[in-house]
Amino acid sequence: MGQHRARRASGPAALQIKMHELLAELTSGDDSRAEKSIPAIIDLGMAAIPSLLELTRAEEVDSRWWAVCALAASPHTRTENLIPLLSDSAPEVRAAAALALCNHPDESAVEALIKSLADEDSLTAGLAGNALVKIGGPSVPSLLTVMSEAPTGIRIIVLRALSEIRDHRAIPVMMKSLSEESAVLQYWAQEGLERLGLDMIYGKP
Fold first, then answer.
1. Could you tell me which residue, 31 or 17, shows the higher pLDDT?
2. What angle do CA 111, 191, 119 make, to 5 degrees?
3. Is-above-0.90 flag for pTM?
4. Cβ atoms of 46 and 76 closer than 8 Å
5. CA 160 to CA 122: how far, in whole Å?
6. Residue-wise pLDDT tens digits, 159-174
7. Hey, CA dihedral for 156, 157, 158, 164, is it positive or negative?
């Protein structure tokens, strides 16, 4: 009976040791070693998530970035765990968080992603748009609001997202954008109408 208890007690300890070793690989500074550690971390299941979340608060940017990459790959990661990472001080971590939300899309992330469309880092802004596309219909009302008040650069991302979501609520905005001075806005407006099967009706002659 005592031996049985000892074996059971060794389980969590062994898991903790394994996780410690894998996190050391993840934060080794060697990209190849770090990348190879991620599948093994994911194999630990839900047990790995708390350690990864703790690592997202590390002082080293590289450690935070790899933690987000591992979270992005894990099916056990919850969207709510990723949302705060969109506000990280490092642009590469914010971009990784936006990309992670593409893998874990949920309506709860819409507000934070909308704010990220104005991120000073263009990669983060673009990936936030991609994540909003993954969320789909629930993103549309907020995207339409941004479309009416944002600078041209942000509206381009928004209109691209709307064209990929293919929601009929965006038709008036797309029609209006056909007369914009920006050729890129015109392009995505036309693209969006085509994807909705309305280019023959609303397209410019």
1. 31
2. 30
3. no
4. yes
5. 14
6. 999 999 999 999 999 9
7. positive
